[in-house]
């Protein structure tokens, strides 16, 4: 009888333990963490258009029979830009052209008259070579320059001529948001000396330009 009673108590205890274990709330698994977003490498490759504007400090001089010696020209310029970049590893090769409306001008006394030089438009077609540092890109640039030079000698006459020369310089560009980038650059431009239509009006023209630009890449 005692053995039967002990066996009954044991079975009852096991039942109570099993029931208690069934009531225990099992912990829910933790949600999986979202993968860390890694921004894809930035690339400068592609076409772009933009606007630019700045200021130029130049030099001009007239030849005999109205010699002036070198005199200063200066003025603002603003215009548009079109270009293409190709990035290969960290090196960026590019072609860029621009067309600017210019107000650079200056004058000086010459043989009892006033000799005046004006640059009314300026355009360049250049190669760019840059070094990509993420969204920063310093670069060097050089190529051909074209411009309209208007020369006048008071009491003698006026002439206007489209000239071809060269340009070289460098700058830095920064891609600050999406397809937008901003640049700051320096260019030296030399349009040489033209053929005189008015005697003595074959003025030499060169200038140093500092300008900023805003580009949109496609």
Can you describe what's shown?
The chain has 218 residues and is mainly beta. The chain has one domain: Porin. It is built from one helix and eight strands; from the N terminus they run H-E-E-E-E-E-E-E-E. The chain has an eight-stranded antiparallel beta barrel with strand order 1-2-3-4-5-6-7-8.
Summarize the structure.
The chain is 10% helix and 64% strand. It contains 1 helix and 8 strands. It has one helix at 2-23, and strands at residues 46-61, 71-88, 91-110, 113-131, 136-153, 157-177, 180-193, 204-217.
Per-chain topology:
Elements: H1 2-23, E1 46-61, E2 71-88, E3 91-110, E4 113-131, E5 136-153, E6 157-177, E7 180-193, E8 204-217
Antiparallel strand pairs: 1-2, 1-8, 2-3, 3-4, 4-5, 5-6, 6-7, 7-8
The share of residues in helices is 10-25%
Q: How many angstroms separate the termini?
A: 95 Å
Count the beta strands: 8
Major beta sheet summary? 8 strands, antiparallel, barrel
Briefly note the CATH topology name.
Porin
Q: Give the helix/strand class.
A: mainly beta
Element order, helices and strands? HEEEEEEEE
Average pLDDT across residues?
A: 86
The domain count comes to 1
- CATH architecture descriptor text: Beta Barrel
How many whole angstroms does the radius of gyration measure? 37 Å
CATH class: Mainly Beta
Residue stretches low in confidence (pLDDT < 50, at least 5 long) are 4-16, 18-22
Q: What is the molecular shape?
A: rod-shaped
Number of helices: 1
Strand residue content: over 45%
Main sheet strand line-up: 1-2-3-4-5-6-7-8
């Amino acid at each position: 009888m005692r053995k039967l009673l002990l066996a009954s108590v044991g079975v009852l205890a096991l039942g109570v333990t099993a029931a208690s274990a069934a009531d225990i709330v099992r912990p829910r698994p933790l949600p999986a963490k979202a993968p860390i977003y890694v921004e894809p490498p930035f690339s400068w490759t592609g076409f772009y258009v933009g606007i630019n504007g700045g200021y130029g400090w130049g030099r001009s001089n007239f030849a005999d029979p109205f010699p002036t010696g070198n005199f200063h020209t200066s003025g603002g310029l603003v215009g548009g830009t079109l270009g293409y970049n190709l990035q290969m590893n960290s090196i960026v090769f590019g072609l860029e052209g621009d067309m600017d409306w210019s107000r650079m001008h200056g004058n000086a006394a010459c043989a009892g008259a006033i000799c005046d030089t004006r640059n009314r438009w300026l355009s360049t077609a250049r190669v760019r070579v840059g070094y990509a540092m993420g969204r920063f890109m310093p670069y060097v640039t050089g190529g051909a320059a074209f411009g309209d030079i208007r020369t006048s000698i008071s009491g003698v006459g006026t002439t206007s001529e489209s000239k071809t020369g060269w340009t070289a310089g460098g700058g830095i560009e920064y891609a600050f948001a999406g397809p937008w980038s901003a640049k700051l650059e320096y260019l030296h431009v030399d349009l040489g000396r033209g053929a005189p239509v008015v005697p003595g009006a074959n003025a030499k023209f060169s200038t140093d330009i500092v300008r900023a630009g805003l580009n949109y890449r496609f």
